[in-house]
Amino acid sequence: MSEQPKGCIFCVKPSEDTDKDNYILHRSKHAFVIMNIFPYNNGHLMVVPYRHLSDFEMLNTEEKAEIMDLISLSIKALKKAFNPEGFNVGMNIGRIAGAGIADHLHAHVVPRWGADTNYMPVIADTKVLSEALEDTYIRLKDLFKEQ
Ligand SMILES: [Zn+2]
To answer: Is 98 helix (H, G, I), strand (E, B) or coil?
Structure first.
C-alpha cells in the first residue's frame, strides 16, 4: 500500500462511511466510482483505484482490469439514466496534462450530447448544471445496484 497523504480526496472519501454525501456511487475491491462535483457535464463520473498512485504503469493487473470494468459499468448506468449520444473516457496523467489531482490516478467518464459544447471548452470551464448533483446521484445509484 502506498502512503496516503492527508487531504487527498480520493484517499479520504472512500475511507469515510458517508458514500451518499461523498457522491460515491459504487465500490469494488480495488477501485470505486465517484461523481465529479465540479463536472464538465451532467453525469461526469470518475473511476479511481483505492491505492494512492500517480503513475499509470504502477497499477497492477487486477486494478487495471477492475478500472476497465467500472468504466464499462459507468457507461451502462449513464446510458440508462441519461441516454447520452457519446462519451469521453480518459485519464489526464500529470499536472501538465490537465490532471486536477495529479497525485492520485483517476479515469474520467463524461457523457456527451449533440447540443453540449465541444470538449476542450467544456473541460476548461465548469458548466451550470441542468440537474442537481443529488438528483443525478439518486438516479445513478439505483442503476449501479442493478448491475
Ligand atoms: Zn490519494
So the answer is: coil
| CB of 25 closer than 8 Å to CB of 141 | yes
Active site residue 104: no
Q: Residue 94 maps to which CATH number? A: 3.30.428.10
β-pair type (107-112, 45-49): antiparallel
What's the whole-model pTM score?
0.86
Q: Domain range for residue 130? A: 9-146
pLDDT digits (tens, 9 = 90+) for 10-37: 999 999 999 999 999 999 999 999 999 8
In a domain, 13, yes or no: yes
- Asked whether residue 86 is domain-assigned, the answer is yes
31-35, strands of its sheet edge to edge: 24-27, 31-35, 45-49, 107-112, 86-90
CA–centroid distance, 24 to ligand 1, in Å, is 15
Quote the ligand 1 centre to 66 CA distance (angstroms). Answer: 17
How many folded domains does the chain comprise?
1
